[in-house]
Amino acid sequence: MNPFSARRISDPVYGTIGLSDLEMRIIDTRAFQRLRNVKHLGLAHLVFPGADYSRFSHCIGVCHITGRILEALRESGQAIIKDRQIQVYRLAGLLHDAGHYPFSHAMEQAVRDHYSNQLYMPKDDQAHQTRGVPSDLLRLADHEAVGKEILQQDTEIRRILTKARIKPEDVYRVFTREGVDVFTNLVSSDLDADRIDYLLRTTHATGLPYGSVDLDYLLSQFRLHDNELCLTAKAIRAVEHLLLSRFFTYMLVAYHRTVTAFELVLKDVIAILLEEEILDCRAPAMLDRISTGAWAQFDDGHVLDKIRTLAANPPNESAATKANVILERHPPALLAEFEVLGDRASRKRDFSIARFALRDRVPSYAEHFGIDRSLWYLWAKDIALTKIGARLPVSEGFLTTTDLQDSAHEGKALFEQSIRILKSDATITQPIMELDQSLMRILSDYAYYSLRLYVLLPPNKQDRKPEIRDYVRNDLRSRGIVQ
To answer: Which site among 108, 318, 390, 428 is 20 to 30 Å from 225 CA-CA?
Structure first.
C-alpha cells in the first residue's frame, strides 16, 4: 500500500490528494491549522473576490506536487528513492510556509523595514535606547527563519516528528536551503512545487486563464543526471510556458495596480501598529509566541483586530485614514505609472534614476495640494522571467526584489536554482537560459520595470483627484521622468 495514500482529501485544484498518517498528524497541529486563517495572496481578494485561498490549502498542494515529482522519478527508474526520503521532502513542502506572518509578504516586508530602521538609528537616539533593540532583531524577519524556529520549538510538531524518527533539521534545511542537495530545488527554485501550486491555485481562485501548467507532461520529463535534477529537452516549451505563466500571473494578480495600492497602505498600517506598540514582532515576542503556542492565534484576524483598535483610537488623522483603507476598502488613487520591458544590464540603471527622480518630486506635490507627505506612495518593482539572465555573470545574479543586494554568494545561489535541461544526447545539462533554442536565452536578459505613484486622498479632497492626477502627469512629462 502506498503510505502517502493512507488518508485522502478533496482539493479543488487536483481532485483527490493522498496524505500519509504522519502528514495528517502534522496538519492537525495548532501551528498548521493556523494557516487556514492566513490568506496566501494578501489583500488580492479585495480586487479578485475568489482570491482568498489560504496558506493551508497551498501547503497541502505543495506537499502533493513534491511527492508526485519524486514518485515520477522513482517510477521512471531514474533514481532509487526510498519512502522515507520522499516523506522528508513532502514534509518540507507541507511546512515550508508554516512561518508566514499574517497577510503573508506584505507584513513580512513591513516588519523587516520597521526593525531595520530601528536597528540603524543613531545610538544616541533616546527611543532607540529605551527600546533596547536586540542584536538579533532581524533574525526572524522572514518566514523561512520563523518556520525553522517552529520546527525547533513547537512542542506538538516536535513530538510528532520525534515519534516518526524524523529530525526537524532534516525538514527545515530543505526550505531554508541550508543543506542544498539533489532534491532541494523541488521546494525552492525557478521551477518548484511551490510555484506550480501557486500558479494552478491562483488560476482557479481568480478565474484568470494565465497560470495554466502542463503538469502531467512536466512530471513525465523530470530526470536525474549526475546527481542533478533536470528536465528533458522535450520539456523546453512546457517549461517556457510555465515561466511565462508565472510572469503574467504576477503582473495581473500580485502586482495588479489596485492590489499593490492596498498592500502599500497595509505596510504603513502595520508600521504604525509596531511603532505604537499595539503589535510586537521583535524576535523575543516571536519566539515567545512559538514556544507558548500563542503563534496559533497570530493570523490575519489577529492583525485585523489590531487595525480596528488603531482606527478607534488613532495617534493622528493620517493613521485613521490609512486604517480605514483596509477596513472599508478605499484604495489610494493611481496618479502616474512608468512601465518598460528592458535589458537587465542597462535598463536597471535608468529605472533607478527615474525612481529617485519621481521620489524627489513627491514633497513638492504634497505641499502644493496640502496633502500629508505620508499619504503619498511610490511603488517600484523589477520583475524577471528567471532568477538569473543568460548574459549576466554569476556574481551579478539578478534578484526579483529591488531591496536585496547583489553579491557573488547570492548570484551563485540563484544560479543553483535555475532550471536545467538535459541535452538530447543525454551527456550534459545546461541552464535553460543558456540554450540556443530556448526563448529564455533572450527573455531571461530582460526584466519588466514598473513605477507607480499613488496618493491616499483625505475625505475633503476626494473630488480633486482628476486635478491632482493631471498636474502630476504634466509635471513628470515636462521633466522627462515619464512619457
So the answer is: 390
pLDDT tens digit sequence for 96-105? 999 999 998 9
Cα torsion for 387, 388, 390, 392, to the nearest 10°? 160
Global confidence as pTM: 0.91
Q: Which residue has cell 502627469? A: 473
For residue 199 the three cell numbers come to: 500558479
17 is written with which cell numbers?
Answer: 490528494
**DSSP letter at 38?**
S
Helix (H) or strand (E) holding 173: helix 168-175
Backbone φ and ψ for 140, nearest 5 degrees, come out as -115, 30
How far from each other are the two terminal CA atoms of the chain, in whole angstroms?
Answer: 64
Q: 3-state DSSP: the chain helix, strand, coil percent, rounded to 5?
A: 55, 10, 30
pLDDT in tens, 58-75: 999 999 999 999 999 998
**Residues 309 and 276: beta-carbon distance below 8 Å:** no
pLDDT surpassing 50 at residue 393 = no
Nearest to 361 by CA among 460, 451, 464, 298: 451
Question: Are 418 and 387 a contacting pair, CB within 8 Å?
Answer: yes
pLDDT of residue 311: 97
pLDDT given at position 278: 96
